[in-house]
Amino acid sequence: MTLQGREVILGVGGGIAAYKSCELLRRLQDHGYVITVVPTPASLNFVGAATWEALSGRPVTTQVWESVHTVPHIALAERADFFLIAPATADLIARLAMGRADDLLTNLVLASDAPKMIVPAMHPSMWLDPATVANVATLRSRGFTVMDPEVGRLTGDDIGPGRFPETQAIITNFDLVTGHKQDLLGKRVLITAGGTREAIDPVRFIGNRSSGKQGIALAKAARDRGAQVQLIAANCDVADLKGIDVIEVETTSQMQNALQSHFDQCNILIMSAAVADARPSHVAQEKIKKASLSSIELEANPDLLAEIAARKSTQILVGFAAETKDHLQEARRKLEAKGLDVIYVNDVSGGAIFGQDTTMGTILIRNEADIAVKEVSKDALSNTLLDQAIRQLG
Ligand code: CTP
Predict the structure, then answer these.
(1) What is the position in ligand 1's atom list of the atom closest to the CA of 320?
(2) How far is the C-alpha of 121 from the C-alpha of 161, rounded, in Å?
(3) Which H or E run contains 120?
(4) CB within 8 A of 257, min separation 6: which ones?
(5) So what's the pLDDT on residue 1?
């Protein structure tokens, strides 16, 4: 499996802390990262290749001389989104600072421009040696993130800076490097996207201009933050949504059924779909001739959000509103009337927003001040709305 944006090379140097990287690897996997381990040959004295292969589920090599026909150092370098080198010994840091390429790991570091984080672990006198200090400064100046080791007891009786940090501290720092917050781990997020359509006859329908881009951006952002995501998608392009459970619907009634099946299990519902407010009272079985098209009798669709809000237990409900005038008053009214926790309103006068990659509007939250959103990408708005929903979850 390759997961876009989450492929990590875990480089392991030849220090005793290598055994702690077995636990690190496991916790990184829990955070949704997909790991390929590249140990230095020396590190195999501490943890063998079999351990890394079993934990990562991937083959492990240390040299460029294995599987030469696949050009492993270039293939792996191209696949890597991030490097985490933990533990990094004084020797490995020196080789990286010099730009050497004398094993697979150092080859990969040179061949890839992916962001790299280094977690040193060594005896305090080696960490404080001017050579190591200079090498670390060189790496930092080249954009490597180098964590400071912890101060504490080392393998012998010595105490000082050089200890391998706690797993959680490494992951917190690594999440900053990758930009992946994992604050939705273990949470279920249900999202509706697109616009429902109501048949008039076999060739015509009542629909709206929602492209589904915002809902899809939300689904991806929630997935990337660790959530289990179900996307109820109405008439939008759902290609390439790895790791997201997509339920495709066409009509309001189909969306209503999907919502009712999945709402109880979710922690957050984000209703970004534009639901058709009405449907033809009768769907003609044959195409209606244009001479008979002067009027279509409509009946109201249920308000899906208001309906599902009545079943709410601990779920956080996020709604959307598209308004052409009085948008703040209208949004505040909908927030209360539909029993929502958060609503995002955009001003769509003149057709703005629909189908575009950017949006601007206002986030309204119960009993809180409005948050104005200046023009941002729909991806960025997604993360801002998720931040608010998570805050409400507590
Ligand atoms: N919504 C819904 N069911 C409907 C209509 C809207 O669940 N039948 C949801 C939308 O998904 C959105 C929110 O309610 O999250 C507000 O939608 P909007 O169309 O702005 O509101 P309406 O209630 O339809 O109000 P109006 O058309 O009068 O502005």
Answers:
(1) 15
(2) 9
(3) strand 116-120
(4) 249
(5) 29
- 45 catalytic, yes or no? no
Higher pLDDT, 291 or 249: 249
Residue 73 CB neighbours (<10 A): 24
The string of pLDDT tens digits covering residues 173-182 is 998 898 777 7
Does the pTM exceed 0.70? Answer: no
The catalytic residue among 45, 107, 135, 208 is: 208
Enumerate long-range contacts of 350-355, CB under 8 Å, 24 or more apart: 351/209, 353/322, 354/209, 354/210, 354/211, 355/209, 355/211, 355/213
Contact 318, 365 (CB under 8 A): no
Residue whose Cα lies nearest atom 17 of ligand 1: it is 321
Q: Is the CB of 303 under 6 A from ligand 1?
A: yes
Name the H helices within the chain: 20-30, 49-56, 72-79, 90-98, 104-111, 124-128, 130-141, 167-178, 213-224, 252-262, 304-309, 327-337, 378-393
Segment 333-351, tens digit of pLDDT: 999 999 999 999 987 776 6
Phi/psi of residue 94, nearest 5 degrees = -65, -45
- Domains of the chain, each with CATH number or no CATH: 7-178 (3.40.50.1950), 188-393 (3.40.50.10300)
Percent of the chain predicted with pLDDT > 90: 75
Report CA(214)–ligand 1 centroid distance (Å).
15
Q: Provide long-range contacts, Cβ within 8 A and 24+ apart, for 361-366.
A: 361/327, 362/327, 362/328, 362/331, 363/388, 364/328, 364/331, 364/332, 364/335, 365/341, 365/392, 366/335, 366/340, 366/341, 366/342
Mean pLDDT of the chain: 92
Tell me the mean pLDDT in the region 77-91.
96
Give the Å distance between the CA of 56 and the centre of ligand 1. Answer: 46
Residue type for position 176: L
